[in-house]
Fold this sequence. Notes:
Layout: E1 2-4, E2 9-15, E3 20-25, E4 35-40, E5 55-59, E6 65-71, H1 76-84, E7 87-88, H2 118-129, H3 138-145, H4 159-181, E8 197-198, H5 215-224, E9 244-246, E10 261-265, E11 275-281, E12 296-298, E13 312-317, E14 330-332, E15 339-345
Parallel strand pairs: 4-5, 13-14
Antiparallel strand pairs: 1-4, 1-7, 2-3, 2-6, 8-9, 9-15, 10-13, 11-12, 11-15
Helix pairs in contact: 4-5
Amino acid sequence: MIELPAGPTAGGVSDFWQREIGVMGEMGPDQGQGGRYLVVPPGQDVPLDSDTDGLRVLRSTGINIMFGFRTLDPDPERARALVEAVRLYAYGSDPEAEPTRLVSPQGRPWSGDQPRGLAYWERLHGIYQSEVVDERDRFFLAMLKQLGIEKGKPFTPDERLTGILERATATGELMAQANCFAKRFDGSRYWPDRQWDLVLMLDRSDQRAEHHDQLLERAAWFYEAVSFSAAMKSQTPGLGQAYLASYTDADGQWLDGARTYTLHVPADPPAKLFWSATVYDIATRCLIDNPQQRGDRGSRDSELRYNDDGSVDLHFGPEPPADPADEANWIQTLPGKHWFSYISPA
């Protein structure tokens, strides 16, 4: 069971193929009014004794799922209240007896990155032990069988196979980076004379085009992010979000953590609730872990410095700008690390 509060939110549930099972929040059927959602696993139906009054049923395509949720309220206190009002609990249990835990790293090291080397294959093997075999899995599992990954059997590669698999993950990640950071999809460049790409080139939640599945498009997006929803492609201010990404500077050179850059945001950008610019580490695709301990600047920052015409100049670099007044518009980057940026209006 998932209970979502009323308010400006966006979210949904995806399977481990990152196919959208259900949309929640302003872009979903509740349209920001919140409500109760029951996620039903494969092969099961809605329990006969369930209270179906106002209940929305999401039928999962797999055993492993992800629930993603974000607030769109620009006020920090209201946003925090919305997060704390979310409830997740097993069907039939008392949500008050087992309160939803909100876990924060609180200074402890953590990573949202995928494992590398042999650990990648061990994780893949582990997922398939508890997952249903989807129709689209069968050819992949035929290939994985040759690598010692089978459902119901242990994964025990010998020294020769271990070396092959470790080299394969390194090569595969280079391919993923080229596919992601140097996009060659028709229509991905948002302006022909600027270095901003649409990050989402998927047409539908099931990741299918008319005659094929969008293999490279989904690989590009899911290398740098998790989950997909139509709400992420909205071009209506105040309804969902949109994402543009820049991986290079105006001259087409990779963004370098040792150099300084300026991004000019014109006055009155097409955003109803807020806009933000965020810096991510190329190696992890997570927020940059800088001494400044923040990776974004945007319209929700009360200290943001505006120009006389209402525009904003954001500064990126390892050292603060020369003018101390511009430090409120600065995101610190790290020498020796490349980075990319999203700009996201909502």
